[in-house]
Amino acid sequence: MRRAELGVVFVSSQKIKALNKKFLHRDYATDVLAFDLREGGISRDSKARRGELMGDIVISADTAAYNAGIYRTSLEREIILYVIHGILHLLGYDDHRPQDIQRMRKKEQEILIYLGKKTETAVSGKL
Fold it and tell me: Distance between CA 53 and CA 66 in Å, rounded?
């Protein structure tokens, strides 16, 4: 990675639901949204895109607090997980098919271990 510009925005569940509906046409609240701000969006095959990351990660603060309680982890760790999740989306990871979910969860765990955050309980399952 040579260049990265990221914005992280914390919003309510109501606001993230509105953003999800407006931009992804999904009428429900979610925990994390990631918006690729590079011209042309994600392009896994473009050599010009390698080493560049630019985007916004929108996190539902309500959901982070709620899930931290459910999964008995700290709010800090939950937010770190959401930021990691958003960055992985910006890098082209997907979490719609079971095999993609597994790949993404594995990468999240690797990063959490690298950051020294793996010592808390298991990663929240929803993301």
Answer: 29
Quick count: other Cβ atoms within 10 Å of Cβ 8?
14
- Here the tokens at position 53 are 């990351």
DSSP secondary structure of the chain? --EEEEEEEEE-HHHHHHHHHHHH---S--SEEEEE-STT---TT-GGGTTEEEEEEEEEHHHHHHHHHHTT--HHHHHHHHHHHHHHHHTT---SSHHHHHHHHHHHHHHHHHHT-TTSSPPPS--
Structural domains present in the chain: 3-115 (3.40.390.30)
Cβ proximity of 54 and 38 under 8 Å: yes
pLDDT tens, the chain, 127 aa long: 578 899 999 999 999 999 999 999 999 999 999 999 987 655 444 444 566 788 999 999 999 999 999 999 999 999 999 999 999 999 999 888 999 999 999 999 999 999 887 655 444 445 5
Joined tokens for residue 30: 């979610």
Could you tell me the pTM of the whole model?
Answer: 0.82
